[in-house]
Amino acid sequence: MKKIFLSAILAGMVIGFGGTVFLSVENTVIGSLFFTIGLFVVCTRGLHLFTGKVCYLFDNDAAYAKTLPVIWFGNLAGTAIIAALEQFTRLASLDARAQAICALKLSEPLFGAFILAIFCNVMIYIGVEGYRSNPHELGKYLALFFGVCVFILCGFEHCVANMYYFTMGGAWSGRAILYLLVMTLGNAVGGVIGPVTRKILTK
Questions:
Q1: Which of 21, 102, 144, 161 has its Cβ near the most Cβ atoms within 10 Å?
Q2: Distance (Å, rounded) from C-alpha 126 to C-alpha 87?
Q3: What is the pLDDT of residues 99-117, one digit of tens each?
Q4: Phi/psi at 118 (nearest 5 deg)?
Q5: Residue ranges per structural domain of the chain
Q6: Closest CA to 98 of 32, 38, 164, 27
Q7: pTM above 0.90?
Q8: DSSP of 50-117, one letter per residue?
Q9: What fold, for 2-201?
Q10: pLDDT tens digits, residue range 3-51?
């Protein structure tokens, strides 16, 4: 579990870097494109990211399910480390934009946030599974890039990315925790839709 937790911290850190890029540029298309660095590193280095691992919940045993909370908290720690360290640099000025993003996310009705989180992990599954199963090198990376860019440009909710935004924007509160838990549940539901549908169709 220690290795999984450390891997999850690293995954959270690279997602934090992706979030930093997104906050640093005005153009959301460019921001979404370079945010992909997070999932790219996670997939190529085999790191543990909750939103990716939860997609394969029903493909594994109970021991796998027990690692998911460990991964979630590791991701939280990783994103917090990046956001905290950035406060000692000129990147601290990004907190204003992070606050605006957080305010928008927390103004969404809870059920709306849940639906947007489901949509997000449908796209994450498309990206991760495309990377895992596409026999062509170019196809692997295009799946990652398109999956991530679509969820960001559509404004879907990614619980790990939001961990970074909430910390960077100083937005943690009881409401933010509630929203993050709802988004986590939505990501879990969205992540298993693809694998479950595939099993049904291939029976």
A1: 161
A2: 34
A3: 999 999 999 999 999 999 9
A4: -60, -50
A5: 2-201
A6: 164
A7: yes
A8: HHHHGGGGGGS-HHHHHHHHHHHHHHHHHHHHHHHHHTTSGGGGGHHHHHHHHHHHHHS-HHHHHHHH
A9: Glycerol uptake facilitator protein (1.20.1080)
A10: 999 999 999 999 999 999 999 999 999 999 999 999 999 999 999 999 9
